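Continuing the batch. This is chain 6 of the set; chains 1 through 5 are on the previous pages. Same settings as before, nothing changed between runs. Recording input and output for traceability.
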Amino acid sequence: MKKSTVLLYVALMTLSVPSFAATCEAQAAEKKLAGAAKNSFVQKCEKDAAAALATATATCEAQATDKKLAGAAKNNFTKKCIKDATGG
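Output for chain 6:
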C-alpha cells in the first residue's frame, strides 16, 4: 500500500513539475522580469508550487484514508483531489 502511494506521489510530481515551470515562467514574463530577478522569482515560484503540491498530496491521502478507500478508488480519488486542490 505504501509503495503505491509513493509511486502515485512521484508520478504526480513528475507530471506537475513542468507545468509549474511553465506557469512560473509565464508569471515572470507578465511581470517583465529578466536576469537574476527572473531567476529568483521562478525558483521561489516553483518551490512554493512544489510545497503546495506536497501539502495537497498529504491532505488528499489523509482524506482517502478517512474514507477507507483502497486500490483504484483511492488512486482516482487522490488524483482528482490533488488536481482540484492545486487548480491543475
